[in-house]
Request: fold
Amino acid sequence: MTGGLYLSTVGRVLNWARSQSLWFLSVNSGCCADELLNTIGCRYDLERYGCALQADPKQSDLLIVSGPISRKAAPYLKQLYDSMLAPKHVMSIGACANSGGAFGPEVSYSVVPGLNQVLPVDVYVPGCPPRPEAIMNGFLALQDKIRGNKRALRQD
Amino acid sequence: METNALFAKINKLPEGWVLERVRFGRSQTASIWIEGGKVIEIGRFLKDDPNFDFDWLENVSVAQLDRVFAISYFLRSRNSGHTLVLRCSVDVPPNKQDRVEFFSVQEVWEAAAPFESEISDLFGIVFSSNEKSMMSALTGEKGFGGFPLRKDYTAGVPLGEDG
Reply:
C-alpha cells in the first residue's frame, strides 16, 4: 500500500501516529550504547515519546547504530536493515557511527568511515559520546522529520 | 588528504591566525593552535573555503592544563575525509566557583550546541549565545558544588558552602 492511496490529511494522521510510536532496534558496538541505556532509563525516560526498545527487526520502525561498524559487520547490519518492514528509519549515534570518529580511515583499515556508506541515515547525533539530551534531541528531530516538519531538513 | 598537504595549505593562512602547528595524538592528525578570540572567524573560513571544506564538527573537548583550559575542536570534511584539530585556550578563573566566558561556534557549526552545554556544566565555561539552547535547561546535576572536571573540584561539597 503506498502513501498515494490516502488523502493528505489521513497521511498526516498516519505520520503523526508513526512518529509517536518509534519502536527501535539498537545495534550497540561502542560506548555510546551506555548513553543510549541512560536515555532509556528512568531519569530521561525515552518511552514517554513512544520510543520502546525491541528485539525483533520485524517489529521495529527505527534502527539505531551506536558505535564503530567494522567492515566485517557491515553486511550483517545491512541484512538486519533489510529485514525491517517499511517505513523504516536509521539513526546514527556518536562520532564513530557518524564518520568513523576515533577509528577513522587515517587510523584504522577495518572500520567503515560513516554509517551512511552502508545504510541510508535519517538522523546523525553528534558527540563522543553524546549526552542523553542530545540523543533525545535526535529522536525529536526524527519525529519532526516523519511528520514532515522543516526543522530536521537543515543541512548544517 | 596527507597531513603534509594540509599543512602546506595551512601555511598560506593569513599571518597571525596560526600560533603553532603540531601533529595530534596517535593518528598524527594535523592540529593548529589559534587565538581564542579568532575562533569564529577562522572556523567560518575553514568551513566555507573550498580548499579546506571542514563542514563537520565531530567533537569538542576540553582539558585543564595547569592554569588554562585547552579547547579542541575536531573537524572533518565530509567530501575529502581529511581531519583537523583546532585548538585554543582560555584562562582558568582564580575562584573555583567562577565561570569563564568563551566564544560559541554554534553560528558556524550547529552541532556545537550539545558539546557546549556539556562543557558549560562540567568546566564552567559559558559560551556566548548558547543561552537559547534547548539543552541548557535540561543539563546539569542539581547540588553539585562547582564544576566536576576542574582540577580544583572537591567532591561532596554542596553549592554555596565552599569557596
